[in-house]
Specification:
The chain is mainly beta and 358 residues long. It is built from three helices and 26 strands. The protein has one domain: 6 Propeller (Neuraminidase).
Length: 358
Amino acid sequence: MPLEQRLTGSVLGLPLQGCRSALLRALLAVLAWPLIASPPVCAQPRLTWQELPPLPIGRGGHASAWLANRLLIVGGSFWRDEQKHWMSSVESLDPAGRRWSHLGELPVPVGYAAYGTYRDALYLAGGSDGDHDLASVWAIRVQSDGLHVAPCTPLPEPRIYARGAVIGDTLYVFGGARDHADLSTATNTLFAARLTGTRLQWRRFAPLPGAARAVCAMAACQNRLYVFGGCRLDPDGKPLNLADAYCYDPGDNRWTRLCDAPRAARGWDAVALDDRYIALLGGYTASAEEAASHPPGFGFTDRVLLYDIRRDRYEAAGELPLPIIGLEPVRTDRVLYAVGGEDVQRHRSARAFRAVWR
């Protein structure tokens, strides 16, 4: 029976005679509304990975940046003959992603520094040279005559395993430890300095309301900082992975607790893919007890999560090409570069990748 012929009797007790056409139009409009008026669903980014030429030497704890139309990999560390070596070298990958070149050296080895890019410079803050934990800050530029490295005003105190990000013209340095050999010195502090003057004026801002931590993931998105996980020492002095997450708003100097991540992890990386999604890459998820009874590669994960800042939720988003921590990703336009990292305890990867998303 046609729809119009079935509209007889009453709806909500109201007689239909004499208003059948108007009611039919209204009903059809209601039925069609979800198809016409609903806003389009924003599809999540889907990452597709491509392998690039490997680094000349595998490394982790490095800094990464896209400067002068090329990818830079700066400092870090590697293992050889059961010894950890700290690096000062700066390597670059050409825009086509075909060849690595040696650009030069830092004045001292630097690994596990916080860092961020502003205009034409990469700023390294803190880290370690292998003998001392550092408060030093360096500005690194690539110019027509080569690599230029200039000292800047140091941090108020040494930091290693901290995270850095730039919002506007300000570099933020969060968390980390004062001593690379003692995670009981981990902090929940937030330092920041504007990068517009000749001297940096470092200031302390509101500390994270959660536990002190090192090797967390942090990204800037929509003029806010997002912090995920990391680790601290438990009461027995063993590393304890964390799952809690927070957002910092510089406008009111306030932290907000977010939904916990699906897994507790340290050493993972966070990078904003756009104004809505933050990718969380890899990480180390094993407890100290689990690590003690498994091979050196146990606990490293290849999982990728997407955090949706609008809905405060996480979604699985595939896998990396290998289980790893410390890829130090860099985004330029719709290309994501991820290089090096730690894939097994006391080993550093030389593999390099880029991903596009749609």
